[in-house]
């Protein structure tokens, strides 16, 4: 994909990350031209750099995949995380307001308390319990305030894929290193393939440009739900090894600086209302994604 940058309809920030790579691949597959900007190419915490970049490229749609994702580090470095997760999206939103671009901003389930008993609706009250969640909520609020008519917040969760470290790749590695693996069984969520989310972002961006997808909050997670334990058993099954090597445990056995949501299941009503199909069941997605993830993980970390 080597368009002249001025011709590109799309601009992707955080392009070097797992989701950013998949967004670029989805755009390329659909013949959409895109400007790809990683952290070295654009510092989102620099408002003038952001303004100049958008005024130069004049994209129709900006997809913000850039984020501070070190959840535990954010507990002691919240001000730094806020610059990336809160100020960065604010600068992007302000620049989009100047140029008229649509902004698709990727957020997280961590904006919720994680104590629900039914899927969180898009308009459910937020109550983050971690510094990471607070900084991501600040980014959401900045986007929706600056871009009431063409700002889109897409919350996702339990993201995995080929292009970066993630839970699925870790469990593949541990399956080759340990006889048994202890995994928490008291946190529920929706494992989501980054390539599936990328396709959904492409569809949402097109819907935004066509006027068929209203601005606001959407939930981009796979359908269905499981626990980390249930997900790991499925990974072991796909590896062709005994799922009973995975042993259930509780969150109390893995103390971390940042609290993890016990319940991260998100509802998808707004995608349906916009005429867009929510993502497929997590098992179907994992089954399709697994061979390539396994191949890359094995190649990069040979036994």
From TrEMBL:
Its EC number is 1.1.1.133. It holds the Pfam family RmlD_sub_bind. Catalyzes the reduction of dTDP-6-deoxy-L-lyxo-4-hexulose to yield dTDP-L-rhamnose. SUPFAM superfamilies: NAD(P)-binding Rossmann-fold domains (SSF51735). Pathway: Carbohydrate biosynthesis; dTDP-L-rhamnose biosynthesis. It is an enzyme of class 1 (oxidoreductase). GO terms for molecular function: dTDP-4-dehydrorhamnose reductase activity. Residues 10-291 form the RmlD-like substrate binding domain. This is dTDP-4-dehydrorhamnose reductase. CDD domains: dTDP_HR_like_SDR_e (cd05254). Belongs to the dTDP-4-dehydrorhamnose reductase family. InterPro entries: dTDP_dehydrorham_reduct (IPR005913), NAD(P)-bd_dom_sf (IPR036291), RmlD-like-bd (IPR029903).
């Amino acid at each position: 994909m080597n368009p002249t940058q001025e011709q590109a309809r799309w601009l992707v920030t955080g392009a070097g990350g797992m989701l950013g790579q998949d967004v670029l691949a989805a755009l390329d597959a659909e013949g959409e031209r895109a400007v790809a900007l990683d952290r070295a190419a654009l510092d989102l915490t620099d408002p003038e750099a952001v303004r100049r970049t958008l005024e130069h490229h004049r994209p129709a749609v900006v997809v913000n995949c850039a984020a501070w994702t070190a959840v535990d580090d954010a507990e002691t470095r919240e001000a730094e995380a806020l610059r990336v997760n809160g100020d960065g999206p604010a600068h992007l939103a302000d620049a989009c307001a100047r140029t008229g671009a649509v902004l698709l901003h990727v957020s997280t389930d961590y904006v919720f308390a994680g104590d629900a008993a039914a899927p969180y609706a898009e308009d459910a009250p937020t109550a983050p319990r971690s510094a990471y969640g607070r900084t991501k909520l600040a980014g959401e609020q900045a986007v929706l305030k600056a871009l009431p008519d063409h700002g889109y917040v897409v919350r996702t969760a339990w993201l995995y894929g080929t292009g970066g470290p993630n839970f699925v790749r870790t469990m593949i590695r541990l399956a080759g290193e340990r006889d048994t693996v202890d995994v928490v069984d008291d946190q529920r969520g929706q494992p989501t393939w980054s390539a599936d989310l990328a396709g959904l972002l492409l569809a949402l961006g097109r819907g935004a440009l066509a006027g068929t997808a209203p601005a606001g909050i959407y939930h981009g997670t796979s359908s269905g739900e499981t626990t980390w334990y249930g997900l790991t058993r499925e990974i072991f099954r796909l590896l062709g090894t005994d799922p009973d090597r995975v042993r259930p445990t509780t969150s109390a056995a893995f103390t971390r600086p940042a609290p993890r949501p016990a319940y991260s299941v998100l509802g998808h009503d707004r995608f349906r209302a916009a005429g867009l199909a929510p993502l497929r069941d997590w098992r179907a997605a994992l089954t399709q994604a697994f061979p390539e993830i396994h191949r890359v993980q094995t190649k990069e970390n040979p036994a």
